[in-house]
Amino acid sequence: MALRKSFLAFLSFGLCVFSGNQFQAVFDTPKQPRTSFHHPIHRVAVVGAGPAGLQAAAKLMQHNFTVRLFERAPHPGGNWLYSEETPVRESYPDEPAGQTAEIPVQFPVTRYYNEGAGGLTLDHRWTEHWRPRPVWYNLFTNSPKAELPDVPYGPDIPWVLSHHTIQRHVRSYASHHCLNTNDHCPATPSAPRVASYSTRVEKVEKDAETHTWVLTLRRLERLRESDRILEEWWTETFDAVVIATGPYTSAHVPEIEGIVDWSKAKDGEHYSMYHSQAYRHPERFAGKTVLIVGASVSASEIARDISPFAHRIIASVRPPSERKGMRQRSLSRFPNMTEFVPEIASFKPLKKHAVGIRDGKIHLINGSILQGIDEIILATGFRSSHLYPPNSTTRRPENISWTGHYTDPTLAYTIGRPWTMGRYQSYGLAKVWAGSARLPPHEQIDESERDTDPGSYWRQIWLGEALFRRYVTWLNDASLEYGGRFVEPPPLETVELLKYYSVVHFLDNTMDLGGTGFDAISMLSGQLKGNDPWNALVDEDTDW
Ligand SMILES: Cc1cc2nc3c(=O)[nH]c(=O)nc-3n(C[C@H](O)[C@H](O)[C@H](O)COP(=O)(O)OP(=O)(O)OC[C@H]3O[C@@H](n4cnc5c(N)ncnc54)[C@H](O)[C@@H]3O)c2cc1C
Ligand SMILES: NC(=O)c1ccc[n+]([C@@H]2O[C@H](COP(=O)([O-])OP(=O)(O)OC[C@H]3O[C@@H](n4cnc5c(N)ncnc54)[C@H](OP(=O)(O)O)[C@@H]3O)[C@@H](O)[C@H]2O)c1
Ligand SMILES: *[C@@H]1O[C@H](CO)[C@@H](O)[C@H](O)[C@H]1NC(C)=O
Ligand SMILES: *[C@@H]1O[C@H](CO)[C@@H](O)[C@H](O)[C@H]1NC(C)=O
Ligand SMILES: *[C@@H]1O[C@H](CO)[C@@H](O)[C@H](O)[C@H]1NC(C)=O
Ligand SMILES: *[C@@H]1O[C@H](CO)[C@@H](O)[C@H](O)[C@H]1NC(C)=O
Ligand SMILES: *[C@@H]1O[C@H](CO)[C@@H](O)[C@H](O)[C@H]1NC(C)=O
């Protein structure tokens, strides 16, 4: 039956074009009980205005939900909101990621802060609140064509894009859906705004009595004229919540003996050691000897960026605990001047903290000692934490189904690449909460399996594609049953582009493809191996 319905759903694409948006159900043979909620869903909160949250908010608005979009940053864009501001310095040693704000007992609360109040600068309060992104000026994508619906790029857009281009693109999408800073939609002056920027969601709680979600909210505003910060706390209540807070919450600092001592060292105004999240421009590395810790994308790409300026680049790379696609790609992208050294065993205590680290000694695990380093960039990755369940710090909270819904289906997380999955998932959320789709049986995403599999990158691509198909079938079945628009799978071109790009990125046989059932690599490598496919296809300065 399911098959027949999907087949019909497929056939009826054509029909829909002619008969408008609604297509009445022909069958009435429920497989699953209709998803029911304590009360109908009207008010929905979306947390995060990155590529995922913007799509969720836009789609829910189209479905006539009363939507509120909360974003801690002053503008939309998520990871792609570039700024010269840098995040508050990471903690040494690493401390658990999570919300640190002390929540007032009663609401609403309004406070003002002057420069230096509570021992904190206004800049510190401000950047702690919104957390500037770990993106640097010359960053380009490491995935092909990151694109949102409704605001297509021009036809000649290169596969690999500068983050500046993506920022404009994501903001265009926000504007197109009336979600950008200062947009007021609907135009009725009395209607509350949908988007609330500079607003951090501090807590998400379910009220057991009313079966609603209570969000604790905190907004900061920089009052330039009086040189103060205004802080407002309040709560709002919702029938459903979408958590689109992105994959990375804070910087990860490795646990290495002596790192806390070295983290205090400064050369003039600058710390000598810092996480890659604070990296912005290469010019100031002129003539310096730089040690980069890590072997993944931030490490290789920052090394490339500073290589025209730096005197020496040394990369400390530990043996991979597992084979990771991105790591292999990164190892081949370090600039040729890179000197690779083994993992760091310890930092020997420094005599002073005000004169940099040039005289400091770094012990490597093979017994050698490194000296004469000017700066250390920790390209050691990020940590995750989630608003709900409280204090969860796994990469993804447990108990999310492949549709993104939590065990309590009035809560959902955005999943998958927002560029590809976002359009399906946001439609799925709207349909389930509008009562025009039934949730499939809860089947948890097994994220751990993805992360440890040797072919993880490949698996993600296949899983990604399988997930599209699953979504398309599910959504179209639901439309057939309850009415609604039909969706098409992503255009073949997009899927092929992703695969082709990936193949090129794993040429050089750096990766074991065993078990993936994918043999195009041997075909392609035969043709491309003689050249340098990296430079032909993924170099930033090639317009392709
Ligand atoms: C340095 C770097 C480079 C990357 N390069 C690529 C690339 O080349 N290609 C690619 O596809 N992906 C890349 N990514 C991954 C990137 O995360 C995704 O492209 C994409 O931005 C994810 O979208 P999202 O909306 O899920 O999350 P995000 O873009 O991270 O957006 C989440 C939003 O939620 C907000 N938020 C978080 N917590 C709260 C809260 N408590 N209250 C209110 N708001 C909150 C954040 O401020 C943020 O704006 C990169 C990531 C990093 C860190
Ligand atoms: N578009 C771009 O150019 C771009 C740029 C930057 C980041 N990104 C994206 O952002 C995300 C994060 O990337 P990332 O490179 O910042 O982080 P990451 O992929 O998590 O890599 C962290 C690196 O640090 C290493 N590491 C951790 N602790 C270490 C220690 N004690 N000693 C030595 N090495 C240590 C890890 O080694 P192990 O492998 O052994 O764990 C890994 O190589 C990825 O999704 C990436 O694609 C994209
Ligand atoms: C939303 O409301 C508008 C105006 O009442 C209506 O035309 C439209 O069909 C509604 N959309 C959905 C998906 O119900
Ligand atoms: C190293 O890379 C630079 C810049 O790409 C290039 O000019 C130089 O010829 C390369 N050197 C070697 C030894 O490959
Ligand atoms: C340690 O590794 C570095 C870099 O590979 C190498 O130059 C050095 O000789 C090694 N030291 C020992 C004692 O093997
Ligand atoms: C979450 O952590 C905070 C701070 O450590 C603690 O006060 C709170 O009780 C924790 N909440 C839960 C549900 O464990
Ligand atoms: C996940 O769901 C299972 C079954 O409902 C439950 O036993 C478990 O406690 C849940 N885990 C979390 C973290 O909520």
From TrEMBL:
Pfam families (UniProt xref): Pyr_redox_2 (PF07992)
Sequence ranges assigned to domain FAD/NAD(P)-binding in this UniProt record: 43-311
Keyword terms of this UniProt record: FAD, Flavoprotein, Oxidoreductase, Signal
Superkingdom of this protein's organism: Eukaryota
Protein name as annotated: FAD/NAD-P-binding domain-containing protein
Signal peptide: 1-19
Presence of keyword Protein biosynthesis: no
GO terms, molecular function: oxidoreductase activity
InterPro entries, per database record: FAD/NAD-bd_sf, FAD/NAD-binding_dom, FMO-like
